[in-house]
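Help!! Second protein's tokens look totally different from the first
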Amino acid sequence: MSSLNQYISLFEQNRATIYAASPEALNRLRPAALSALKQFGRLPGKRDEGYSKTSLEEMFAPDFGVNISRVTFPVDVAQSFKCDVPNVSTLLGVVVNDEFRPSATLLKNCPEGVTVDSLAAVAASDPEFVEKYLGHLSADRDAASALNTLLMQDGVVIRVRKGVKLDKAIQIVNIFNAAAPLMSVRRLLIVIEENASARILVCDHSQSSDYQYLSSQVAEVFLGDGATLDYCDIEESSEKTSRIAQLFVSQASDSRLTVNGTSLTVGHTRNEYHIDINGEGCDTELAAMAIADGSQVIDNSSRINHNAPRSRSNQLFKYLLDDKSHGAFEGLIYVAQDAVHTEAYQSDRNMLASADARMHTAPQLEIYCDDVKCSHGAATGQLDRNALFYMQTRGVPEAEARMMLMQAFMSDVIDRVPIEGLRDRLRHLVERRLSGEHAVCGDCAASCHK
């Protein structure tokens, strides 16, 4: 039995339980998802285009448990936020496996015009809103997102209403905590309405490194005319945690989007960025950095579709790979026939710190309009031996010199992080990671007491 078929069978055997535990607005999406999965027939493997280093078929193959019956798992949230880096004041919500739990500060301090709540709760109380947005960007795109739709039972809704400028960042912390192999189906729906603005930080952690975990995460983001969103994603889980994280974005005219992805401690991770620029005058920044060692695999895939004129996008991906780790980047800039005066840039730069590390890179352009400015490039190399020698001649020990060069290599990605206070936090975490110290769950998390 293929890994996809085992989850289809799981759904069909537990259909009544899933439907009974979920609001109608979620259940209405399941038949189309099931039909799409049966048409796909299987999850992508390494022989499929765009999956050179990642087989979702293999990733989903282990016998993971799925919380069909909605069992509540205990979690020591306080333990997850014992960190020794500067605090970032946020509105905090925690997702334990796949169940959303708001913090007391979120319930108390969430401002008027802003919703941060359980997807299941909003689907029950405001089904028209959920049906208007949920599933529209990810529907029938691929087998992974369809499987997420088939099995989702909860998630997070973030809505910022027209004209609201949210001062505090919203933070969603995903925590794995189960004494058995577990797959969590996580869903995030973000709607930033016309001329509204928000900053969102999503962190992934695993409280135990003893069990295999799998995160299936789909985020759908809608930006209205003139809306602004800064979105940061940090994964600091465990070497036994696998993740497929898919971000789908639709930008309306004059919207501004900044996305930063950071992979610090992982097992096998695939991040997918699908951004549709559907209005004129949009600005899009996408940057990501990845640090891997041992046998870890980090795979990033991006597609930015310029469907309207006079918009700009800029991408920067950086990898630092050591030991026998593997990295992959495949990125596509698509420019439609009528998207005149588009400016789109893409860069992938990688450093291999060992002879056994491997990097696969494939930047691509697909342009159907002449009046544009577009470029892409990739470079993979090793530590600068001349710089390393120079620093040693000035009395810097080799290990310290190597770390300083690797930190400098990542600095321009960190500098693009738009959330105030998070840049210093990331510099600290990168330093710890490069020194071989795997941070405990929650070290990148913001304070939940403000």
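Here's the second one for comparison:
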Amino acid sequence: MLTLQFIPHSEIEHLPSERRIAKLLNVVKENKIVVLEGRLRKEEEADLIKQTMECIDDDFRGIELSVVYPDNRNKLAIDVMRRLFINLLMGDRMGITVIGPASIIKEIKKDPNKIELLTQPLRKRRKR
């Protein structure tokens, strides 16, 4: 069964970077796909990848991560300015971040209008 867990930005915005990353990584380790409102800072993305690499073993093969930004093309100048102003006030909340276990996510395709999440069945490991 495929499980998506939506995490609103308000749930992680007051956490320090380490706890924010740990929370997201713990959800992904439960074989859930995280749909995060907003995005992580570039340093946090790098730390998430670093911590993921340290956790890889037979049961956890890593993560797939993709950030989808809103499309500002063909928008009125006032709409673009409003988005920039809101982004300045509220932080990097524009966009959606998708994080999932590499054992489930085969590929994430994105374009301005949609996200295609190609998955594969989770393989149960045989007990020895």
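Reply: Different proteins will give different token patterns, so don't panic. The mean pLDDT is 84.
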